[in-house]
Write a structure and sequence with these properties.
Rossmann fold; alpha/beta; membrane; 7 helices; transmembrane; Cell_Envelope_Assoc; six-stranded parallel β-sheet; transmembrane helix
């Protein structure tokens, strides 16, 4: 009988602990959602209405084995290209993952932009933008970006704007939703975004350094100065 009572007590405690953990997780997620929405409010625009900025920051996404950008990434790059063509930005900073020699998001982004008419002199490359937080921190601390238009998909845009603004960059955002036609990848990305918001909160609270920092790079300055 004594063993049964102890077992029931431990079971109740286990259930209670699980409930507490779930409630804490929900609270963090909800507070994170409120934070990113609050930071991004008033800073999300359409292509035609976004205010001019010195730099467009294009966040990386999947690149295929042949080096071509996925539809999600190509859509981001096309927005940045049009912002450049219409004079909304003067330079483009492509930021993505090049942690493995055979996988090069920012290099592929540069090739795509050049192939679509953006001068190479107007493109700066961040090879260590391993996630959105790293891209924003490095844009500020390594590339010296003070004001920018950030470009990504709409489901990701609030978090991207919030992170860059928190790092001290005067940031507006333009989002793409043309790739909603890829229903399953879009749905999966929207679901993953919930967890990414929790990570963003942790990154901001801990003020962690990006995976790589290094010395100041002048490539954005040079792109802005290019004639």
């Amino acid at each position: 009988m004594h063993v049964r009572i102890l077992t029931r007590r431990w079971l109740r405690r286990g259930i209670l602990a699980s409930v507490v953990v779930v409630m804490l997780g929900v609270a963090v997620l909800l507070s994170g959602e409120l934070w990113v929405r609050g930071e991004a409010r008033g800073h999300i625009f359409s292509e035609s209405e976004v205010p001019a900025a010195p730099v467009a920051i294009v966040l990386g996404a999947e690149v295929y084995a042949d080096g071509s950008p996925s539809p999600f990434l190509a859509a981001r790059l096309d927005i940045a290209r049009r912002l450049y063509e219409t004079g909304k930005v003067k330079a483009i900073l492509v930021s993505g993952d090049h942690s493995r020699w055979e996988y090069d998001e920012p290099g592929s982004m540069q090739v795509y932009l050049i192939a679509h008419g953006v001068p190479a002199s107007r493109i700066a490359i961040d090879y260590a933008g391993f996630d959105t937080y790293d891209s924003c921190v490095r844009a500020k601390r390594i590339f010296g970006v003070k004001a920018a238009t950030i470009v990504t998909q709409t489901y990701h845009l609030d978090r991207a704007v919030a992170l860059c603004r928190t790092e001290g960059i005067a940031t507006n955002g333009v989002g793409d939703d043309t790739v909603k036609i890829y229903k399953e990848p879009w749905r999966n990305s929207v679901i993953r975004e919930r967890g990414a918001i929790v990570k963003a909160v942790a990154d901001v609270v801990t003020h962690r350094d990006p995976v790589f920092l290094g010395r100041h790079e002048t490539t954005v300055e040079e792109a802005l100065a290019a004639s």
